[in-house]
């Protein structure tokens, strides 16, 4: 196992291995918990529209940027910025990336813990143990949140200290397609339920008057979160990428796959929300605002499985939450990998020690979140909604004006020989130099102006 030695970095076993790992990082709670929740809070279809645009206009170019910086330098974000520019600002940006990873993971594990709790909720419920089901699914039970999150963190740490490519590739190759199939079947099922068409309309027919700065900011935050961008996760993953791979192509696959799964999750959850409402679950308050908050999908989805009933309900309910927890695990791994690789590279501490140290710190922060879940919204806003686009802004400015696009082209050329003869390069240059930084900065600045007024 080469990766357990301090100075030898691992590489992905194969091209498909890298794509699986990057997709494993991208696809997670962001697609199935965060996206439907934020979308439902922000007017459904209008949000989907802006989100999809931002994914391709800003997300994809930043992904290519992160991967090329990572592969060029073979380093973590702090080390990567340092290696290519003397400017101290980017060292600070690198630290910001590491900090975002720590902060995001500290609430991510709590939600991931809920997916495990709900796996058991399904088993208990369908076995007729309704009291147990109710107990294990109480998301406000601090001790329970803490216990399950600690378990989840322990598994994440164990995988990270073994090195990058083991485990992730296999888990994703096998289980991700299964998750897609299950969601697909559930979509078909839910379409036949009362209330479903109302949810579908809300999801697919945009009301453009719902678009405002809050919605645009939320959509940008979601684009970065879902694609695992803006905190150097893909700089780190890119550092394990072989020079033979075509970065723009790999990034395109990951992006399309990730958005596809989020889109499907919306297709499942919007109708389910309305179905649950038809069943008497309180979803909206008198003003039409969503009451569920961060626990939304954990209130409506179990309802769907209870409704299915019997063995079918048990099989779908239990496997859905099981697969979701695996998806969360492959994402959590990438969140922990960033600060860990920083400690390994920059402080020369062994992988095993680093993973335990950083993982331990994150677990301690997570305990606070376990007992006060309202912290999730706050941390998420600071580090995901603001923090990640800020990181993305740094990366695009860094590539375009400090490392320089010509050097990026030389890196991208490896694995993509005819880069000069395709439309990709001239278009990419315009995006990374002008469109991405200007658009990200404009959205962040208008949010600040709005907040001050
Ligand atoms: N993208 C993951 C999800 O959708 C979460 C995640 C993993 C992440 N690594 C990241 C988010 C890095 C931001 C940055 O669940």
Task: Walk me through the structure.
With 453 residues, the chain is mostly helical. It has one domain (15-452): Hydantoin permease. The chain has helices at residues 15-26, 29-41, 45-73, 77-84, 88-126, 130-136, 142-161, 168-191, 196-204, 213-226, 233-238, 247-278, 296-308, 310-347, 351-371, 375-413, 424-452. Helix 1 crosses helix 8 and helix 7 (142-161) runs antiparallel to helix 15 (351-371). The longest helix is centred in the first third of the chain and has 39 residues, at 88-126. Mean pLDDT is 91; it is low at 1-7. Tryptophan binds next to helix 1, helix 2, helix 10 and helix 14. Tryptophan (TRP) binds next to helix 1, helix 2, helix 10 and helix 14.
Task: List strands and helices in order, with pairings.
Elements: H1 15-26, H2 29-41, H3 45-73, H4 77-84, H5 88-126, H6 130-136, H7 142-161, H8 168-191, H9 196-204, H10 213-226, H11 233-238, H12 247-278, H13 296-308, H14 310-347, H15 351-371, H16 375-413, H17 424-452
Helix pairs in contact: 1-8, 1-12, 1-14, 2-10, 2-12, 3-4, 3-10, 3-12, 3-16, 3-17, 4-5, 5-6, 5-7, 5-13, 5-14, 5-15, 5-16, 7-14, 7-15, 8-12, 8-14, 9-12, 10-16, 10-17, 12-13, 13-14, 14-15, 16-17
The structure holds tryptophan.
